[in-house]
Amino acid sequence: MAQSVKQHPTLHFRGLPRAIDSLVGIPYQDVGPTPKVSVDNLLSAHGFDAGGKSSRLHLSLPQSTPPGIYKGSAEFGGKAYPVEVQVEPYYNLALSPRQLIVSAKPGEKVHVDLVLANSGNVVCDIGKTYVFGLYDIHGADSAIGAAFRQTESTGEKRADRLVEALSEGHGGMVRIQVEEGSGPIAPGEVRPLRLNLHFPGGLKPGHTYSGTLPIENLRYYTKVRVIGDGK
Questions:
Q1: Paired residues of 112 in beta bridges
Q2: Could you tell me the pTM of the whole model?
Q3: Is the Cα dihedral 171, 173, 177, 181 positive or negative?
Q4: What percent of the chain stands above pLDDT 70?
Q5: How far apart are CA 54 and CA 102, in angstroms?
Q6: Candidates 2.60.40, 2.30.30, 3.30.1180, 2.40.30; correct CATH number of 11-87?
Q7: CATH 2.60.40.10 fits 93-226, yes or no
Q8: What's the rounded Cα separation, in Å, for the pair 55 and 74?
């Protein structure tokens, strides 16, 4: 950048790699058609939002940019600005397929093969065991219907009946053993994931249940169609 350009106060950015911005104390019309931004030799895209006496400068760094503080510079409207960018941790795991649909008997163990990708900027640790609850997909509707049909003459209040009916729709806890793919997964890494799902014995044949498996930021939707009688 030319040495003759007058230096101005540092522009401070903070956020996730793909969503960082800063207010710039210069009217939008004075910015010029081609603002120049450079951040520690990282490839970046940038743009402005129009404002009154100030504008908002957006930066977009590679999604895998590690958390930390980066230095750079910006030039627009005939002015030069030092730039400091604080990149925050970005947890972004993804599984393929996008959701899991399986058929299982009460108490059955089922193996599933998935593909896990880390599209964030931090290492994520995949545990060896997980657990999550299953709920009858028609449980809430049935519970609300049962509560409204409830009359005070039975001695049971509608609110109590609603809670009781909702609890009846809880199918129990799915216990998961990660047979392949546990351990740290680095940003940009893709790996196979093999799970052993042990379904609870209290599931009702003919019913469908759903739940979400939590892994870091991920909430993996799972639907279970219950077949047989578990024998």
A1: 195
A2: 0.75
A3: positive
A4: 71
A5: 54
A6: 2.60.40
A7: yes
A8: 14
